Amino acid sequence: MKSNTLLIKVCIAIFIMATGILSATAKDSAPNPYEEATQVEGQNLVLNGNGPFSVNRVKLYSVGIYVPARKSTAEDLLALPGIVRVKMVMLKTVESETMSRRFIADIHANTSKEDRLKIAPQIVQMGMGFGSVADWNIGDVLTIDWLPGKGTVVRLNGKQMIDTLKDPLLMQTIMKIWIGESAYDAKLKKLLLGEKG
User: What is the domain partition of the chain in residue ranges?
Assistant: First the structure.
């Protein structure tokens, strides 16, 4: 009887260790959604930085910024010519209305009234696009690409969400959500500007 009990305990211990090893391996080998480099419209871009966006310590999504050349200040990043990509990956399921309100609120906090008036119709279009998604689910990928000569292209899981938006001021406005003077998440701002967490 004792030998059977000992055998059961040994089996349980082996199972726990094996499960732990498998879990660690799965975690370690999970693909990083932010490659160090990517291509957009044939142009090579590098990852300037990435990190999670948190509200009240709850991580809603992660975001990364891809640019032609790395920069360490918001001013230099916003002034870069060429293609720019913002990539967001959802870390939590969020209702569309919440995402839309968050987006509008963050733009309002980081832009002047004058700039908002200039691109008001495009901000409304983006807000409506965000609001048209039933729910933002864990793993959903949003890309926002500034393509010189074309405009800002917004895709959710590879599918274009709204018409291409032409005004170059819009992309800068979007980027200011995370790297503007009044960016909500100061820690994320530092990560996007290349500081190590």
Answer: 1-30, 37-192
